[in-house]
Amino acid sequence: MNSTAQPLIRLEGVTKVFHADEVETHALSDVHLEIKPGEFLSIAGPSGCGKSTLLSILGLLDSPSQGNYWIHTEAVDNLSLSDRTRIRNREIGFVFQAFNLIGDLTVYENVELPLTYRSMGAAERKKRVQEVLERVDMAHRAKHYPSQLSGGQQQRVAVARALVGQPSILLADEPTGNLDSKNSEAVMGLLRQLHADGATICMVTHDPRYAESADRAIHLLDGRIVEETQGTSTASA
Amino acid sequence: MSESKMPGEAPRQASAASGGAEQAKQDLRGHGGLPWFEALLQDLRFGLRTLRKNPGFTTVAILTLALGIGATTAIFTVVDKVLLQPLAYREADRMVVLMQTFSGGQSPVISIPKYMLWHDQPRVFEESTLYGFPGTLRVNLLGGDQPEQFQATQVSADFFSLFGVRLVAGRAFTAEEDAAGGLPVVVISSGLWRSRFGANPHIVGRTVDVDGTAYNVIGVMAPLYTPDLPLGDMCFPLQADPNSSNQGNDLFGVARLKPGVTLAMAKAATQVVAEEFRRKYPAMMDPKGGLTVETMHEVRVANIRTSLLVLLGAVSFVLLIACANVASLMLARATLRKREISIRAALGAGRGRIVRQLLTESVLLSLVGGALGLYLGYFGVRFLLGINPANLPRIGEHAEAISLDWRVLVFTLAVAVLTGMLAGLIPAIKASRTDLATTINESGTRSGTGLRGNKTRSVLVVTELAMAMVLLVGAALLMRTFHDSLNVKPGFQTHNILTMGMALRGARFQKTAPVAEVVREGRQRLESLPGVEAAAAACCLPLEGGYGLPFNIEGRPPTNGPFTGGGSWRSVSPEYFEVLRISLLRGRTFTDRDDGAAEPVVVINEAMAKQFWPKGDELGARITIAKGVGPQFEDPPREIIGVVGDVRDNGLNYNPQPTMYVPLAQVNDRLTALDATLIPMQWLVRTRVEPHSLTNEIERELRTASGGLPVGTVQSMDQVLAHSIAGEQFNMTLLTSFAAIALFLAAIGIYGIMAYSVQQRTQEIGIRMTLGASPQDVRWMVVLQGMILALIGVSLGVAGGLALTRLMRSLLYGVKPWDPLAFVLTAVLLSAVALFACYVPARRASRVNPMVALRYE
Ligand SMILES: Nc1ncnc2c1ncn2[C@@H]1O[C@H](COP(=O)(O)OP(=O)(O)O)[C@@H](O)[C@H]1O
Ligand SMILES: [Mg+2]
Q: Which residue of A has its CA nearest to B761?
């Protein structure tokens, strides 16, 4: 890891407050965070501490109540809806706990989806989808529907879908949360491999074993970063 | 009680004592005595509670059903009264009407000679009668403060017995009284008896002064028959001469078939009469024509049937659309209720029981909707017909015969129950098929692209749209017809003309000269009134039909039987063309000098000139009208002195016929007298102000001019025009309303399915957004999906429209059933409405918070 490199992502003083039923929830309080290119960051913490909220802000699904957010060097907290959509489509790949594949679309179509939201020729799309499906070892299931796959396979397809747009960062929210240990291990293996190949990953996880795969782990409690530890990753450059 | 000793009792007790299984089975079926009824009560209770708990769903469903059932009830009340209910005559199903046929159709108006040859067939007919147009005859009742005008009818002696008209006092005419030259007698209505004679019990035997003759009142009619038989207030014996050679077709001949005689047999017998008539009067029957009979019912309703059936078809579409909408709503709700239903099933409710529960709910909804619909529909149609009776037969002048009877109630109840069943059946069956296991532990990949799981609803919505499209096309065609009618140039100017009828009858008016004198005097007096521009009189009003007579052109051989041609015949005073602003094309119109002493003249219309004098050399030619039609029509050769523009005398939707205008003062005396037994003479007054504002002054001047005679049926020419297209207007108004309801319901339908689909797809839409779908992408996706349904519906609707609008061809004028403009415009309208209905949920979809993708419940 090159400590002098420009951070890919920089959060400064980010606060998120939800107002629901006249109750204020401080989901995030004064969060400072930098993620460098090629870094593998894990986020841990008890349920309700704000992990998903942090991820959704990082993924431009939501904007902070206060604070600033830069991707590369571009301030993204004040962008228009369409700019945020474009950046989300190009810079960010999502992997969810519940896989979130679309049941009526085939594996191929699911993976192709992010590319259909940019203007890209069919041939180029096909090439990319096939490449990425091979990379997660799911090319042979391209015509299957999600319901015909195991959980682990579904999650590998979801990872492929996150990667197909060649995003700058992969955001994963408890990607192993719905998987048994064998499948979890397979998915983590895939993420580690991607990281080894240079991908930047930010992953929310409960499981301390998987948190260790990361270069760096942060712990959240009640919306604050309370602890930061350097992991034992071998992939530092 | 001795029951326990009955022989059948012992085994049953034994089995109950020995077998618990039997007991359990009975428990499952229900509870003892009233399993069916108790289960129903339970279903009802639960159904009511469910509906109360979902006020939004319940309200929308009830209103939808109320619109559908209301429209159906509205049309049914009319169809029932006009088409279905038997005529209120004695044994009406065996009554037949003598018809003359000709190349262009058939008509129930016949002449005395035709009737005389036809009616006396004891093997076929039980009894028969000959009578004049009911209620069109006007007479003046004298002897009060002032003469009063009344509607009356001339009938032959057997009329009352044949139609079953009851008399509350006195008797009907005898054959002697009905014989030509018989004594003056009259049967009066109970209405007149009450209003004019204070219901005097000794009225029979008294005389009344009608048009200067003392008539002996011999009977009083029961107040029974107004809508089906509008006889007016007095019935006079027709006193037709059986040997009359008057070939004028201005009477009705009706007979009752003997029991066992079929219509076909009567037609065959009438066919024989036609040949006999042709031998006897070869000149008086169209070579392609003849005589036939039709049932009384057919004659009364034939003209109106198509339009009522089209409207009935239209409301059944509206009802089906409402049904589909409610079914779709219930399907959506059944998905939400899956859990409840599977729990019920898990607790042992059979499929039948679940289906019944859901059907109970939908029938409940539709009963409430039906009650509301009954109210809306019945009062709606009464209101509509009250404003515009639409020239519908059998309903009375102000639709008073349209009533809320048990037939309407039973019909509405039946429709409501059927609608409820229909709307509830598919959802009930689908819901009862719910697979327990998948519902109770529902999980896994739930996110679908929406409509795939809503196939049934999609089909329902497409059907709705297609049916709405058909209705819209039908409405557009009628609108174009109506619009075209309004744009047709009637050939005269309708504004600022007041018209009224005057009965010039009695000894004083048996000749033409005194009639012409009243007209001359009346015109002078009217034209001196401030506000009156010109005045005229005529036998009949434009747009209301008139007489048809043949003619021969001097120096030309007959080409059409013994005649050169035929056309419409109208007697008019000077100024007639000026009052109506009918354009003079060539020659001159009539003046006061064209009287009985002057050279006989005639003015023809352009249609006649073009057809018979294509070179334009008609002026100076001479024609003889109605040669040999009978002494009443005896007419000298007349010189054509002018050609005027065509007038749509038979109605806006009828092309102008060749027309002969004859000076009123030159009509032969007997024809003048005959006219007065058919319809009253018409005054036409062109005013400079709102015509009705002069009614009193005009009436006063005309009383003075006529020696005290009143006028009746005072109406402006604009009203005459409106009346002439009232039927078209009624059809158009109703079909347009139904199409609007259909459009509205179809819009709700497509909105409903798209809104529901968006709600179901929230998660999926969120996922798409996390992957970079922009709000526009999402909006477009939803709109596209909805519009695919809409376009399928529109296409099917176009196909359906092409197939169905042919059925309404006879209601259309100036527009083809496949009129491209109507189809294109309605397709665009329906698509635009569908687009709007999809856009609302699409916008909601585009506002889905993508964070839902991160939430995992
Ligand atoms: N849209 C929202 N409205 C209101 N409160 C929310 C919303 N999203 C999250 N929260 C609240 O914010 C806190 C953090 O939630 P979340 O980030 O989902 O926690 P985690 O992912 O760590 O379990 C919780 O208390 C949650 O209830
Ligand atoms: Mg979370």
A: A102
User: Does residue B793 lie in a domain region?
Assistant: yes
Q: Does B446 touch chain A (CB under 8 A)?
A: yes
Q: How far is A49 from chain B (nearest CA, A)?
A: 14
| Residues listed for chain B | 857
Q: Tell whether B718 is covered by a domain.
A: no
Alpha-carbon distance B402 to nearest alpha carbon in chain A (angstroms): 56
| Pocket of ligand 1 contains residue A195 by CB under 6 Å | no
Higher pLDDT, A91 or B395: A91
Q: Are residues B146 and B257 in the same domain?
A: yes
pLDDT digits (tens, 9 = 90+) for A173-185: 999 988 898 999 9
Q: How many domains would you assign to chain B?
A: 3
Please give the interface size between A and B, counted as residue pairs whose CB atoms are below 8 Å apart. 85
Q: A17 pairs with which residues across the strands?
A: A26
Q: Are residues B757 and B819 in the same domain?
A: yes
Residues B801 and B697 in one domain: no
Nearest by CB to B772, from A96, A98, A117: name it.
A117
Chain-chain contact of B775 with A81 (C-beta, under 8 angstroms) = yes
- Residue B618 has, within 13 A of its CA and on its CB side, a CA count of 28
Range of the structural domain that residue B762 is part of:
454-485+727-857
Q: What is the pLDDT of residues B329-352, one digit of tens each?
A: 888 887 777 777 777 777 767 778
Whole-number Å distance, alpha carbon A215 to ligand 2 midpoint, is 21
Residue A181, judged by CB atoms within 10 A of its CB (0-12, 13-18, 19+), counts as exposed
DSSP state of B282: G
* Ligand 1 midpoint to CA B448 (Å): 26
Q: Ligand 1 centroid to A48 CA: how many Å?
A: 6
Domains of chain A and any CATH numbers: 9-235 (3.40.50.300)
Contacts of B86 (CB under 8 A, 6+ apart): B92, B93, B297
C-alpha closest to that of B785 among B848, B850, B838: B838
- Give the span between the Cα atoms of B612 and B320, in whole angstroms: 55
Task: State in Å: Cα A47 to ligand 2 middle.
Answer: 7
Pair (B554, B649) in one structural domain: yes
Cβ B297 vs Cβ B86: under 8 Å: yes
pLDDT computed for residue A233 by the predictor: 47
B660 and B747 belong to one structural domain:
no
Domain identity same for B670 and B775:
no
The distance of A85 to chain B (nearest Cα, Å) reads 5
Return the structure tokens found at B256: 């009752």
> B658 is written with which tokens?
């060749």
Q: Give the largest CA-CA distance in chain B.
A: 116
B769 Cβ under 8 Å from any chain A Cβ = yes
More confident residue, B536 or B85: B536
The answer on pLDDT for A67 being more than 80 is yes
Q: Where a domain ends, among B677, B708, B739?
A: B708
Alpha-carbon separation of residue B208 from B202, B213, B538 (angstroms)? 13, 8, 29
Of the partner residues B444, B767, B854, the one whose CB lies closest to the CB of residue A102: B767
Ligand in closest contact with the CA of A219 = 1
What is the C-alpha separation between B604 and B618, in angstroms, rounded? 9
Distance of alpha carbon B276 from alpha carbon B260, whole angstroms: 25
Q: Angle at the Cα of B782 (from B780 to B788), degrees rounded to 5?
A: 95
Residue B720 lies in a domain: no
What is the C-alpha to C-alpha distance for residues B449 and A110, in angstroms, rounded to an integer? Answer: 12
DSSP secondary structure letter of residue B810: G
Do B780 and B640 have their domain in common? no
Q: Which of the listed residues B643, B677, B708 is the one where a domain comes to its end? A: B708
CA pair distance B574, B559, nearest whole angstrom? 33
pLDDT tops 50 at residue B17: no
Question: Is B535 inside any structural domain?
Answer: yes
Q: Are residues B578 and B530 in the same domain?
A: yes
d(CA B559, CA B564): 5
